[in-house]
Amino acid sequence: MSDELGRVRQMWHLLEPLHAVLYYAPEAFGEAAALGYRTDERWPSYFAWRAAPLGEAGAGRVTETFYSFSPRMVGEYVPAVWSVASPDAVLAARRRAVDRTYRTLLGEAATAPETAEVAALVRRAAQAADTTGRPLAAANAALPWPDEPHLALWQAATVLREHRGDGHLAALVGAELDPVEALVSFAAIGAARPEVFVSRGWSDEEWSQARERLLKRGLLADDGTATEAGRVLRAEVERRTDEAAAAPWRALGDEERERLVELLGPLWVAAIGSGLLPSETTLGIGKV
Length: 288
Description:
Structural class: mainly alpha
Number of strands: 0
Oligomer: single chain
Largest sheet: none
Order of helices and strands: HHHHHHHHHHHHHH
Distance between the termini: 12 Å
Shape: globular
């Protein structure tokens, strides 16, 4: 991995927890409940928070852009989420949820000068991102920017996160891995235990059928682990993902990137140390 791609991956590792806390924070569940969403599980608010920038997207559009979720699972929540609250109402509540979450998570640091400095740097990178062909990134980038630095930080992190994710889906399609095959092959290289991917809604039969297809392609061994060819293919997917995510970070100079890493460290520690985020996720951060 080149130095540049290593830095791109480092930025993803640092920013992803700051984006993802929204989906687990009690403050966010409180805002979701106020809108009328069930909060006994996280999926009603997850699909609402993440899909709202797309407008009243149907199940097909959400399945297409989220990719790894079973269409059957998406259909359980979309478009029903829009009968509870409109996308505009969800976006307003999402901003309140981020505000409350960050103020709890970061305390005085939420409004500190250092957070304003971080937000300015991450926003510059986000605004340099080409969102052509990246629907989730484009939808978030088109939203008005909040004045408060901690809210601008979350929005910029989200634009960059979805920009990377959209590029990752393109890499998976290029590798001819359909959504369930993408998960099976990811589990096969040890990115996460297969049980973790149950959250994406695929049945045991669908998982087994995907394994059979990957076996026939020589990407999976009989024990479910990746063959050398399977590992090479997944490494290529990750390389292409990093390459596709690199351009926005070229908007910052070397010293600015180093400063950003320094400033993001305490915020990352706060997010990871909050106990809100699961210790093992479907993203495989730190394992690929």
